[in-house]
Amino acid sequence: MSGNRTGKTLTKYKIVFLGEQGVGKTSLITRFMYDTFDDHYQATIGIDFLSKTMYLDDKTIRLQLWDTAGQERFRSLIPSYIRDSRVAIVVYDITKKRSFEFIDKWIEDVKNERGEENVIICIVGNKSDLSDERQVSTEEGETKAKLLGAKIFMETSTKAGYNVKNLFKKVAKSLPEFQDSHSGESELDGTNERGKLEANKPGVIDITTTDQQGQEGGCQC
């Protein structure tokens, strides 16, 4: 599907998910797309691709989500998928310090392929529900994000559904399509019938609202 009901072509944005094996890249996408979580971990083989229409602030866009494998043997495939991406979401596991330390390498790969100005870098600390096993503090994550030039930092829990919708909302608001939007002015208020139709179309994710679990949780660096 290349356009919406009015015949206008949807703007497409490519988002690539990066990070070590088992940090929750696939779970992040699954929670956003289907609002489900699977306890049975299966490693991504190579590259997976999903496409989803998203509605926010009276705008409808198409997100192309590229889920990359964290295993070393697939590493050589990844640069070609980074090359034309608009957003790079680098994920680590807050209970595994090693996955956090590898962020630098992933960001380096992104900057090598896309430069500093052509991509929105987002760092995500996943598995915040396992706070008693935490090896990386929120402050460490925030500091690293600022140091590496990430535009967005956030902690999420794909298991609890915490902050996942907020993450994609922040990502969307960083995209060129939303830069001329004035936050709050185009929220659904009962007067925008076309907006309501767009949001309620089958297969469209409406992220006008925030996660039920609340709070923004994390900074926009």
From TrEMBL:
Entry's Gene Ontology cellular component terms: cytosol; Golgi apparatus
Keyword Plastid: no
Region (Disordered): 179-221
Subcellular location(s) of the protein: Endomembrane system
CDD domains in the cross-refs: Rab6 (cd01861)
Transmembrane segments: none
Basic and acidic residues bias locations: 179-199
Protein's membrane topology: Lipid-anchor
Pfam annotation, one family: Ras
UniProt keywords, alphabetically: GTP-binding, Lipoprotein, Nucleotide-binding, Prenylation
MF term (GO), any: GTP binding
Chief location bin: membrane
Family: Belongs to the small GTPase superfamily. Rab family.
Name recorded for this polypeptide: Ras-domain-containing protein
Organism from which the protein derives: Torulaspora globosa
